[in-house]
Amino acid sequence: MNVGDQPAILGAHPEVGGCFCIAGFSGHGFQQAPAAGRGVAELIRTGRFLRLDLSPLTPARFATGALLREETVL
User: Among 7, 35, 69, 72, which residue has the least CB neighbours within 10 Å?
Assistant: First the structure.
């Protein structure tokens, strides 16, 4: 589980080139893994998310303070 905020962490690591994160799902990872995997594969291949804008889930949000809060956490 991601304890900094609640949502998953997806995207390029802000300080380590070539390192991509797909983490912090808690029990929701089973449901979200297919879309997360596709999104990060698109990011690696093209440099951006294509089908879904997953950019708010970037690992860089912890450094910038742009944390996300889920209104309803199941």
Answer: 72
Question: In total, how many domains does the chain have?
Answer: 1
E-assigned strand segments in 1-74 = 9-12, 20-23
**Residue 13 buriedness (CB in 10 A; 0-12 / 13-18 / 19+):** middle
Nearest to 33 by CA among 46, 48, 22: 22
In a domain, 15, yes or no: yes
Write down the pTM of the prediction.
0.81
Domain extent at residue 27: 9-64
Kindly give the confidence (pLDDT) of every residue in the chain, 74 residues in length, as a single tens digit, with 9 standing for 90 and above.
566 777 899 999 999 999 999 998 877 788 999 999 999 999 999 999 999 999 999 999 998 888 888 776 66
| Continuous segment of H or E residues that includes residue 64 | helix 61-64
Residue 71 inside a domain? The answer is no
